[in-house]
Amino acid sequence: LLYYHLSRWLGATVRVPATAELQFDREWYTTRVVTPGLALAAEHPSRKMLQAAWRHLDEALAGEGSRSEFLHPASGDVWGAALLFTGRRYGPEMNGTRASGWGSGQNRDFQQTAPFLALRNPADLSSAAAAGITAARGDPAMADALAVDTSTTQVAWWMLELLDLVVLDYLLGQQDRVGNIDYQWRWLWLENGEPRSATAANGSRPAPGAVRLQTTWLNDNDAGIRRAYANYARKTGMITGLRHFNPDLYQRLKALAADMAAQGPIYRAMAGNYHLTSGELASIATRVAELDQTITADCKAGKYRFDLVPSVILGEAEPPADVACE
């Protein structure tokens, strides 16, 4: 739930599917969902994790007076999130080769993709994207996944989305992003300087100048928030060394940091609407302050090109001449 609403507030280009909270009567849910789930899991004795998950849910819902995390803190009903997701799974071109194994290793492999390498290249946007393609294709597995004729426009669009992804995962403590990044083919174009898009499923160009690109969807966001999860965006330094940034995202992150520090309306909305513990909310606030400190220092040091803007990437505008760091 928080991924969806925070991505919208930040004006993210990367797509997080529409998400809604649902509640179900505990007895109905046990009969309709949990009991059949246990039966299905029993048919697959080798899948120990699947069986353990259903047993855990069954025991939590059966407990008298239980205040399990599965139960809504106010109503006591079973609650969860429903997602309207779409897309297919990227290969190594966006998820990384994952050659170094689960955990920090694959998250460092992720930082060797073309868009991530380009994010850290100080050259102009087109040159950085081209260099990212060349460097990434130096890995044989990546060369198989990333075509030599991949356009710099595609990589620049990925850079824009990847920046959103890294910011969201850093702030919300994502443990399981790599390998779970999806895409959809869409037509992208500008109308009066504003980005527009349409599905590219039927192949017909919807407007003059529209380009067909893979756009990124974050459908799998369940391994975040909880303090027990490993925050790999933070642990492997994904926000350090960036040389390209979205100026609108920068300003919204500055506003978010000010609000969280003052426990303003966004802070209060997080506290009141997402069933967070006080520790979870405090952890998010701490990471917001950390991110604010990093991007402010890098901005003041002149390290950013503020060129990750749809109108710039799609070729109809120049990057802003100046962005206030404070």
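^ that was protein a. below is b, sequence first then the tokens
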Amino acid sequence: VLNHWGLDVRSKEEVDAAYQAALKYKDKYKIRQVQKPVMQHGVYSFYMEDLDHNWWEIQHYPGFQDEDLFEFGDRFSMEDGAELGELKDLPA
């Protein structure tokens, strides 16, 4: 599923709990599809399709992606005179 919304959770167990809840409430909330959790591309996740045909991925990424995103931000600096939109890579 290329186009989808995603939710990060903190553990594989939370992915499994969300998967079980999706199965339990599938009929009540008219969830169209619930796919089994899998480990792929370093992420443990499952997909489900809602009533409006939106796909959702519930996933656990070891190291939690938000922390990685903030660490990535430290590669850039605005102190070298760069304007917003012209950020320059810091020297290695």
